């Protein structure tokens, strides 16, 4: 996945998109701007206002008293120094990054493998598998969380029952949610399970666009499957891979619901906080909105740093 | 392709989404005059799960709507889990706030101190005056003004299987050590030969149950010294209690590792399935016990014992306060509804329907004269509350104490973890 490969197909991130025709000189027509207006307004109200508000709060002392009407005073960088000086924040950050990278890497590996497998399947089976994955992807996250909690339930869960049945010592009645390592293992399985389908669909869509004759020619020249994958498939679909990977990283870094719900089951809140739940705990539960806003801003910054490449590419694409 | 770009945008938006998380908070609130009684209003009332019986709810709605034609009263039932953050955001804006709210007594000091509640000092006498439960009045007051009136109180008692005690020749324990010994013997005996059997059902996540050990030994969760709060789980008294608890979890209970708060809040379930010889619950849990067990006379109850055999121990003082949101647009009518809540019929419903001790102690007699009521009233009389500190609700929602007792249930190091928890409590309790 290199940057050079993205140049192979100018004009778009997905391959196979026709070059848009060069714009002709047009008279100024206000209609396009008028049509844009609702969308712009929605974005401004929906995202601009909260963002502004958050930036303001990050520089204020804002706790419960301010929430109920006391005027907030500006405290400069106080909130930021407090966050950065808190060891809990750094532990949470490390945990979040590790969780995000592991999940994103595994999701990509499983997703690409699944997509390649799909191309080899007969049509009927392939449709069946795609339908199954669509269901997994469309399942509301709370429903799948409930099912996962049942699967890993310490009393009647099928996982403990099976492992104990296999003769593994201590697995009968094992509580997966009371140990940070197994807690995150279950959370990771759930997160990956929910995001693999999208990767499969996108990679599958682009793999099927690859020129068959190119693959045939390489077979005649004696290339094996691995070589074909490395030398033909990957470079061709690199733009898609890049895009999906970065999206996965963004999504996995700001994971909230899964961790938040599983924490209710685990009773080890502090050892299982990720950035999202940490911000929630400091802000909404802890009543310290100023520090929480500062933390959320830092989180935004980290996300931007991690995904800068995609963002610039996204902007470039818009200029075409 | 289009879809892809849109998703891309969503992704970008997602990065900014963290911002939205905090967007709901922080609207400064105007307090319009809202004390009129003549303007009809739609009152919204938040009661907690298991607090107010259906009968009492129906009575309140009917009486209120009859008395104030054109106005309505709607009761919305809330879950305890996550209620503090929900109140923080809901109470802050006149548009979203419920008019009357029930507050856990441990959370009341926080909301009284930050100006979220309407001053009730003017109607205090009408609500019950000197007959209101004193400890709950204290928790519901700030700077000598009452903002949250005592709603009801309750404390845990120990339920046990009489037949199991008889079979194994056990007597009702008089001390905490005897309680551990009895639990150990029942668990070893396992009279029903049940694979999940536990001498006593006591989940690690149910920290409020575990407080009984701490309080009975004279320990406290936090203490005030020279105007400063200090976490107190490291004190010799608390440590002694934790040693007793861990002994129980080693030999007399297999349930210390239960971390699911839903299971923790239904201790009678294991008892009903014959998987526990004892559980530590509220008097109204008696109604949840299987009929066969009750009819066969197999169920008994006793007060939590003290460390030495000198009467009952000190369980946690459960209970609630009830208050009016300062942002309510109908504070006048809400006060009228509050008067109905503190009238004789509604207060007696607590005793006759719920099994709680009503906030106005004048009506506590309705609990009856039977053994269960005697044990319950004794438990409430001896009960001890959480610290009346302004920031205690924040300690609760940061899960400092919950996390600690879960770790204790898993038999982790009591000394080191108590030190960490104490430091956290000290920090939160003293922050402004």
Task: Write a concise synopsis of the structure shown.
The complex is a heterodimer of chains A (320) and B (432). Chain A has 320 residues and is mostly helical.
Overview of the molecule:
With about 325 residues, chain A is mostly helical. Chain A has 16 helices and 2 strands. Helix content of chain A is about 75%, strand content about 0%. Chain A has helices at about 5, 30-60, 65, 80-85, 85-120, 125-140, 140-150, 160-165, 180-205, 210-220, 225-255, 255-265, 270, 275-285, 290-305, 310-320, and strands at about 60, 75. Chain B is of the alpha+beta class and about 425 residues long. Chain B has 2 domains: about 40-155 and about 320-380, D-Maltodextrin-Binding Protein, domain 2; about 155-315 and about 400-430, 3-Layer(aba) Sandwich (D-Maltodextrin-Binding Protein, domain 2). Helices cover about 45% and strands about 15% of the residues of chain B. Chain B contains 19 helices and 14 strands. In chain B, the strands form 4 sheets. Chain B has a 6-stranded mixed beta sheet. Chain B has a 4-stranded mixed beta sheet with strand order 8-11-7-12. In chain B, helix 8 (about 175-190) runs parallel beside helix 10 and helix 18 (about 400-410) packs antiparallel against helix 19.
Instruction: Report the largest inter-chain contact.
Output: A-B, 65 and 56 residues
What general outline of chain A do the C-alpha atoms trace? globular
Q: Note the total helix count of chain B.
A: 19
Give the biggest beta sheet of chain A: 2 strands, antiparallel
Oligomer: heterodimer
Instruction: Kindly identify the CATH topology of the largest domain in chain B.
Output: D-Maltodextrin-Binding Protein, domain 2
Shape of chain B: globular
Runs of chain B in which pLDDT lies below 50 for 5 or more consecutive residues are: 1-32
> Unreliable stretches of chain A, pLDDT < 50, 5 or more residues?
1-14
């Amino acid at each position: 996945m290199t940057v050079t490969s993205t140049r192979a197909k100018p004009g778009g991130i997905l391959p196979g998109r026709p070059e848009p025709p060069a714009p002709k000189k047009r008279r100024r027509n206000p209609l396009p701007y008028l049509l844009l207006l609702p969308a712009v307004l929605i974005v401004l109200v929906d995202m601009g206002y909260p963002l502004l508000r958050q930036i303001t709060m990050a520089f204020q002392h804002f706790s419960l008293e301010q929430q109920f009407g006391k005027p907030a005073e500006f405290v400069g960088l106080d909130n930021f120094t407090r966050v950065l000086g808190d060891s809990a924040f750094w532990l949470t950050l490390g945990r979040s990054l590790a969780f995000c990278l592991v999940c994103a890497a595994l999701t990509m590996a499983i997703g690409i493998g699944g997509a390649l497998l799909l191309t080899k399947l007969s049509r009927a089976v392939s449709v069946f598998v795609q339908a199954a994955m669509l269901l997994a992807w469309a399942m509301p996250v709370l429903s799948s969380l409930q099912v996962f909690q049942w699967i890993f339930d310490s009393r009647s869960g099928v996982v403990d029952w099976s492992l104990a049945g296999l003769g593994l010592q201590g697995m009968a009645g094992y509580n997966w949610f009371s140990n940070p390592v197994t807690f995150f293992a279950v959370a990771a399985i759930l997160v990956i399970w929910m995001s693999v389908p999208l990767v499969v669909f996108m990679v599958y869509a682009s793999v099927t666009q690859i020129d068959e004759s190119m693959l045939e020619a390489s077979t005649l020249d004696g290339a094996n499957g691995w070589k074909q994958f490395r030398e033909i498939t990957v470079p061709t679909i690199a733009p898609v891979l890049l895009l999906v990977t970065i999206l996965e990283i963004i999504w996995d870094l700001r994971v909230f619901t899964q961790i938040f719900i599983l924490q209710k089951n685990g009773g080890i809140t502090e050892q299982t906080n990720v950035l999202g739940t940490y911000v929630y705990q400091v802000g909404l539960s802890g009543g310290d909105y100023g520090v929480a806003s500062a933390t959320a801003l830092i989180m935004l910054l980290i996300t931007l740093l991690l995904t800068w490449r995609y963002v610039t590419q996204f902007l470039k694409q818009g200029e075409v | 392709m289009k879809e892809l770009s849109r998703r891309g945008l969503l992704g970008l938006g997602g990065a900014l989404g963290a911002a939205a998380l905090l967007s709901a908070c922080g609207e400064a609130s105007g307090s319009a005059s809202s004390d009129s009684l003549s303007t009809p209003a739609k009152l919204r009332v938040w009661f907690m799960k298991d607090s107010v019986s259906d009968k009492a709810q129906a009575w309140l709605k009917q009486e209120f709507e009859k008395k104030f034609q054109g106005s309505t009263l709607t009761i919305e039932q809330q879950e305890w889990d996550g209620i503090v953050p929900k109140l923080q955001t809901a109470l802050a804006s006149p548009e979203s706030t419920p008019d009357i709210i029930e507050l856990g007594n441990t959370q009341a000091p926080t909301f009284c101190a930050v100006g979220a509640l309407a001053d009730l000092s003017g109607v205090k006498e009408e609500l019950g005056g000197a007959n209101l439960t004193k400890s709950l009045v204290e928790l519901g007051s700030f700077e000598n003004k009452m903002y949250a009136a005592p709603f009801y109180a309750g404390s845990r008692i120990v339920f046990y299987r009489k037949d199991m005690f008889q079979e194994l020749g056990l007597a009702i324990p008089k001390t905490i050590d005897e309680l551990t010994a009895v639990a150990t013997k029942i668990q070893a005996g396992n009279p029903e030969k049940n694979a999940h059997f536990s001498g006593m059902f006591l989940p690690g996540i149910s920290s409020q149950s575990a407080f009984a050990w701490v309080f009975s030994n004279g320990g406290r969760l936090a203490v005030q010294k020279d105007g400063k709060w200090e976490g107190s789980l490291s004190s010799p008294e608390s440590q002694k209690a934790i040693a007793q608890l861990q002994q129980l979890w080693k030999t007399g209970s297999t349930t210390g590792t239960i971390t699911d708060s839903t299971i923790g809040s239904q201790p009678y379930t294991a008892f009903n399935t014959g998987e526990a010889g004892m559980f530590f619950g509220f008097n109204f849990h008696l109604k949840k016990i299987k009929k066969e067990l009750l009819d066969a006379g197999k169920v008994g109850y006793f007060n939590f014992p003290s460390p030495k055999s000198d009467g009952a121990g000190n369980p946690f003082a459960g209970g609630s306060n009830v208050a009016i949101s300062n942002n309510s647009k109908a504070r006048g009518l809400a006060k009228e509804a509050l008067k109905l809540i503190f009238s004789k019929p509604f207060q007696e419903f607590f005793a006759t329907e719920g099994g709680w001790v009503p906030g106005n102690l004048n009506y506590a007699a309705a609990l009856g004269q039977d053994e269960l009521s005697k044990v319950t009233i004794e438990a409430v009389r001896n009960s001890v509350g959480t610290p009346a500190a302004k920031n205690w609700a924040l300690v609760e929602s940061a899960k400092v104490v919950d996390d600690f007792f879960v770790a204790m249930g898993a038999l982790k190091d009591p000394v080191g973890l108590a030190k960490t928890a104490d430091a956290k409590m000290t920090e939160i309790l003293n922050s402004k």
